[in-house]
Specification:
With about 170 residues, the protein is of the alpha/beta class. It has one domain (about 10-150): Rossmann fold (3-Layer(aba) Sandwich). The protein has four helices and eight strands. It has helices at about 15-30, 45-55, 85-90, 105-115, and strands at about 10, 35-40, 60-70, 75-80, 95-100, 120-130, 140-145, 145-150. Strands 4-3-2-5-6-7 form a six-stranded mixed β-sheet. Helix 2 links the parallel strand 2 (about 35-40) and strand 3. The longest helix has 17 residues, at about 15-30. The radius of gyration is 16 Å and the shape is globular.
Length: about 170
């Protein structure tokens, strides 16, 4: 648990709608036209879907990466979970990597590096970026050093399934 940190960043569904639209506008204003959006599951699925609609990009891919196991608790290194996208599907593409937050940046770095040898260009878009992130994203809606309550993960699961999180 975060010691002494009760101040959190609160993202509501309505505010997420604003954030994703603002991100899309920044990407469009920059002239970046991705061939595909690569979502980092799970939080990045929401970002990628909304950006896909706003930027008129229908080609969405998913990478499942496990890193966080709880509030400020993570594995030593992020791990790609199957199915890993086939690099041949990315070859020569202009890729926008979408995630909800660049916290340490380790997950984004893993995905960006995976793409780097195969794609024409890769850029990253996130709702939030923290100062400690080793990846500085091209498109960021807001910078924060707080823990973030996302609308899709703030409530506990309706059911608890065993074996869904890798053990550290």
């Amino acid at each position: 648990m975060l010691s002494g940190m009760t101040d959190r960043e609160e993202l509501t569904w309505d505010l997420f709608g604003t954030a994703s639209r603002d991100l899309a506008q920044a990407i469009a204003d920059d002239g970046f036209e991705p061939d595909l959006i690569l979502s980092i599951a799970r939080g990045g699925l929401f970002v990628a879907g909304s950006l896909g609609y706003a930027l008129d990009v229908k080609n969405l891919h998913v990478m499942n990466v496990e890193f966080y196991t709880g509030v400020d608790e993570r594995l030593d290194l992020p791990v790609m979970l199957p199915p890993v996208p086939n690099a041949v599907d990315l070859t020569g593409a202009t890729v926008l990597v979408a995630d909800d937050v660049a916290d340490t940046g380790a997950t984004l770095k893993l995905v960006r590096d995976f793409c780097a040898d195969h794609v024409a260009e890769v850029r990253c878009a996130v709702v939030y970026e923290k100062p400690r992130s080793e990846v500085k994203c091209e498109y960021v809606w807001k910078y924060t050093d707080k823990w973030i309550n996302f609308p899709w993960s703030v409530l506990p699961p309706v059911v608890k399934r065993e074996g869904q999180v890798l053990d550290a």
